[in-house]
Hints:
Layout: E1 4-10, E2 17-20, H1 33-43, H2 47-58, E3 62-63, H3 64-70, H4 75-87, E4 91-96, E5 99-104, H5 106-127
Antiparallel strand pairs: 1-2, 1-4, 3-5, 4-5
Amino acid sequence: MDDKRTGPTRTGDGSSLRDSSDKCRRDNVSQDPNMDLSRTFRALGHPARIAIIEALANRPDACCGDIVEALPLAQSTVSQHLQVLKEAGLLTCCTRGRCCHYDLDVDRLHEASAAAETFFSAVLKAGRGTSSPSAMPPTAYVDSKSYDTTDTTEISSGDTF
C-alpha cells in the first residue's frame, strides 16, 4: 500500500483546518511569527503533549497504539492530543492501511525553537533596560484586536497526566 502523508491544511477561506491525504503539507504556518509561536506554545501547553513529543523523539514513525503503550492515557485521549499537535504543525502523519504513523516535523520544531529564542531574547533584552532601536516593541507581541486569546482545546476524557 502507498503511504499517504497527511498534515494540516487550510480550507479555501483560510479559517479552518482539514486533513489532506495527498501529501504532507504545512499550510497552517502563518506569515506572523508571533501567531505561529502562540500556536506552538498552546499545543505544548499540556503535559501529555510534551510526553507525546518525547515519545516520538525516542520512537519515530510510531502509531497511536505505540504511544498509548508508553503513556498512562487512554487511546482516545492520546488520539485527541495527537490531533492538536498535528494541527499545530509539530507532527506529520503517514497513513498505512488503517494505521496512522506519526513523526515529529523536525524542521517545524527547529523553526519554533528559533522563534522562541528570538522572542525571549528580545523580552529579556528589553527587561534589562538595554533595549536597542532594533528590539521589538511590546505591541509587536500582543495586539488584542488581531489575536484570538481563547483556548478552545478540549480533551473530554477523564484521564489526567
